[in-house]
């Protein structure tokens, strides 16, 4: 198995602040990782590194067999799917949903719109259907609900057939039905052996989809614990991550946590 991500003693500093410190992390093909931690823990910073969008201040960050700093990131980025609200904010409101998805491949192959092959459109339709968004393909992005936008963003991130898929808080801002729908669909993607390695950032154990394999718990820029979910996601590790006593329940492949009552 080859490494998708190989971070060794990685740190990111801004001014006098350590956003990440001493992070060792390896993600292998076929793995589906959750990165869990409180606000400000450094989760988005970690994902930005994994996406090749920032460089470490210290340590070595390996991505898809290349080393950040010694590789042309513009060649690396198309191999990585990224879905985040910051990227979604750049999508024009008037763009049709089908174009939002199909244009993901424009930047990769650098072709003009006119020459886009019917296969690209078929792939976009297939991905929208897999995300339960086929009926939205003719709508403009600006008219979609938050939940619909999230599904379209994920279809877009999968369009280039990436080797690594990064999801930054995909369920943030969704109502209960929207969250459950998205978590179920992410579980289906995670169960698909042909799917890329996945890394999903979240604040909530309730949002961990079925079939995710591993978890990295982050607090104040440092790794609290990491490894297979079944042995790493414990009440003690959650308490150390969030700084409070928590009870953890497991229902099948789903989790729920709340404050421990006195
Ligand atoms: N350019 C910067 N200069 C100084 N501090 C920064 C900078 N960028 C981020 N930070 C700080 O680094 C910390 C980690 O930020 P990051 O966005 O990675 O956390 P996060 O875990 O994703 O948080 P959230 O869950 O709230 O989105 C935060 O305290 C943030 O304020």
Automatic annotation (TrEMBL):
Keywords: ATP-binding, Nucleotide-binding, Transport. CDD domains: ABC_cobalt_CbiO_domain1. Pfam families: ABC_tran (PF00005). Residues 5-245 form the ABC transporter domain. The keyword Transport applies. Gene3D superfamilies: P-loop containing nucleotide triphosphate hydrolases. GO terms for cellular component: membrane. GO terms for molecular function: ATP binding; ATP hydrolysis activity; transmembrane transporter activity. This is Iron complex transport system ATP-binding protein. It comes from Marihabitans asiaticum.
